[in-house]
Fold:
Amino acid sequence: MTKRPTLFSLILSMPLLLWQLLFFLFPLLFLVAISFWTVRNFQMQPDLNFGNWERVLTRGVFWDAYFRTMILATAAAAITSIIAFPASYAISFKMSEKAKRWMIFILIIPFFTSYLVRVYSLQVFLSDAGIVNAAFGYLGLGPFPMLNNAFGIIVGMITLTLPLVILLQTFSLNFVNRDLIEAAHNLRCGRLRTVFAVIVPSAKVGLVIAALFAFILSFGDFVSPLYLGGGNPPTLSIMITDFTKSGQQWPRAAVVAIMMIITLLTAAFAAITYAYKERGR
Amino acid sequence: MEANAQMEQHSEAIVTFDNVVKRFGDFTAVEKAHFEIGRGEFLAIMGSSGCGKTTTLRMLAGLEDPTEGAIYLDGEKVNGKATWDRDTPMVWQSLALFPFLTVQENVEFALKMRGVGKEERRQRAEKWLEKMQITEFANRNINQLSGGQKQRVALARALVTEPKILLLDEPLSALDAHLKVRMQAVLSNLQKDLGITFVYVTHSMSEAFSMADRVVIMSRGQIEQIGTPEEIYREPYNRFVAEFLGSANIFDGVVQGPAGADGWQVAYEGGETILPKSELPDGRQGQKVTFIVSAENMQLSLPDSGQPGIEASVAGEEFIGGTAMVFLETAGGQELKVQKSHDELSLLNLHAGSKVVVHWESGSCHVLPGENK
Structure:
């Protein structure tokens, strides 16, 4: 199955290759190099100092932040996928072609406004004196703390990723062979059961990749943990800014960033392997 | 004759279509379908695309609901009954095998949905894998099978619940000619072995005629004729069926008067012939009559033989196995087909443009009843 790339295809892929070299691979290598530098008198000096790695990786505060970020991002990806699925299902299976097009358009609109603006407006909703708690107050409930905690962070992350996840899920559901659904019904599989026995496995690749995107975006998110989570205890992205602000510790920030990249690469590799795994020999 | 005897065996109907109509918006897909399917019968529904054959099958499967009329399955009216509450497994044109399941899991699917236990599921699936000769592929991924193997998996999956009826929607259309013939034999033998009813939708006459006990011919939502392949071939009901079968010459004539005790003298454009009275019992002078003569009953002579008949010239020739179909054109512009053996044709030494005389025995004329009401 291995094909040799033709000269034409190589030329076509040159812009992508150059872009990736200039703005991904070189900065990444530079990041790795920095992680071994030394900071003296708030000045960075090139060095081969393993101390940065040791200081970061042996401290409980790093691992607390690491697992906290991991759990938040995993929870956000899972919750977003679950909330998104019924909507994607409805768009893909229950709407006319015209309505589908409108829904896709509507789902793109959230990307027009800055994520930061949306998070600020969420503060208004979620604060103790905010709209949601005011509504609970009328019912004699609350106020519930919804800001400066994990709940706030996850609401922010869902806000960030939900439209994208619905779009990706909808596209993958559009490609589910409709004959398979009828065949399942015909073989005595009821409507709800068909969703889990046929539709989800058929759209598995798209659903997993949608969840992966939600995880990647949430894992690296800085805005929600800071403005809705209060920034303390820190997530990894907040830890990076903390390191750079306090004592110009760019090398330690680089260590955290590299750990994040390794985690995301592992997660992406595992997810894609799982998504494309086929049954049987 | 054999087909008739079979029909009597399954005189009891398993399926009844009672004046069934299906409309999609303004479009009428099926118009007043009214027929029965016998228990254990192999029924083919044939027609070109868009004729309503697949819609008819889908209504029987419960994938579409009739707009009017009633469908009875095993004595029970099934209008409005969902497909998952019926016992009408179907084999799809695309086969619709689940690519995310193994061969064995595909076959077990319907059993799993019915809550059959794991061990029993395995045993019953294995029995069908064996019957369809695909045991060795049990743990394979669907995408690694050939067309014929997939075909067998689809059959095993549909039959594993041992239904009384199996619906097939052009299942062989994706196969190459050689495999198609082999799978026809598999299907035909399977139906005889199991003794269950097969309802087989196809656009291919050779598939329908080689396998089915009876054939339903549809066109634009209407049923044009129902009968055994032999009946339809010998006695097509109307012009559509005759043209669809493609091997008959159609003539429009006018009755001139009686010809002897048991015939009618009939004039048509380009000649006159005698129609047997048995074909037109209550004919009268001046009556318009449409009749056919099948291509293999046509005789050819050279013009200098003195044989009376229609004069025509050869337009072309097409080989059909051991015989050839000769295409002729009359002076009046009518196209005629004559099927003859190669030996017979070589004696005439024909080539394009040759003049010939076409004639036939009066007994080989068949009046189209649907055109002479």
In short: Residues 60-94 of chain A form the longest helix (35 residues).
